[in-house]
Amino acid sequence: MADAAPNLPQLLGEARRWFDDALLAGMRAAGERPVTVAQASVFATLDAGGTTVSELARRIGVTRQTAHQAVHGLIGMGLLEQVPDPASGRTRLIRTTAEGDRVHRRAQAALAVIEDVLAERIGAAGTRELRRLLTLPWGEPPDVRVP
Predict the structure, then answer these.
(1) Nearest to residue 19, comparing CAs of 113, 107, 114?
(2) Can you give the residue ranges of the HTH marR-type domain (predicted)?
(3) Which helix (H) or strand (E) element contains residue 114?
(4) Does 2 score more than 70 pLDDT?
(5) Domains of the chain, residue spans
(6) Can you tell me the distance from the alpha carbon of 103 to that of 42, in angstroms, rounded to the nearest whole number?
(7) For residue 4, what pLDDT is reported?
(8) What is the pLDDT of residues 115-138, one digit of tens each?
């Protein structure tokens, strides 16, 4: 069987890995403690006021157990904390600590540099167009029925 051209989800996944690899390597080189891709994804999906572990799991597309492990690793590093949810006595919210805020700001600065590198490689216009296309509303996922 001949190698088929990669489909769009594969290409998007490879692009995501490129950013993840660059970010994690840059943060390690800057002296930050290493985190996993799942742990970095937690930071990318946290709400300012805090987010439940179940919601984090949904947003990053992993099981609740995987999200729980990532969160508790970050709590152990002093980057996140659990606080009671004021809207519910049964749930707890995950939010960043002051140290987590510092690391998150540094990661955001690193991502800006990584985007600049991408713009150098594929062109500033290409990078702007990629951002524009990815931020267009896609609507709900289609209900596809394959025979």
Answers:
(1) 114
(2) 28-127
(3) helix 98-122
(4) no
(5) 26-134
(6) 13
(7) 84
(8) 999 999 999 999 999 999 999 999
- Buried b / exposed e along 35-55 (16+ C-beta atoms within 10 A): beebbbbbbeebeeebbbbeb
Q: Using the predicted structure, report yes or no on whether residue 3 has a pLDDT greater than 80.
A: no
Q: Which of 55, 99, 51, 50 is CA-nearest to residue 74?
A: 99
Q: Please state the separation of Cα 9 from the chain's center in Å.
A: 16
Amino acid at 83: V
Task: Looking at the structure, give the CATH architecture of the domain made up of residues 26-134.
Answer: Orthogonal Bundle (1.10)
Q: What is the number of alpha carbons within 13 Å of residue 129 lying toward its C-beta?
A: 5
Structure-token match 């931020």, residue found: 135
**CB neighbourhood size of 123 (10 A):** 11
Token digits of residue 96: 């960043």
User: Which pLDDT belongs to residue 8?
Assistant: 94
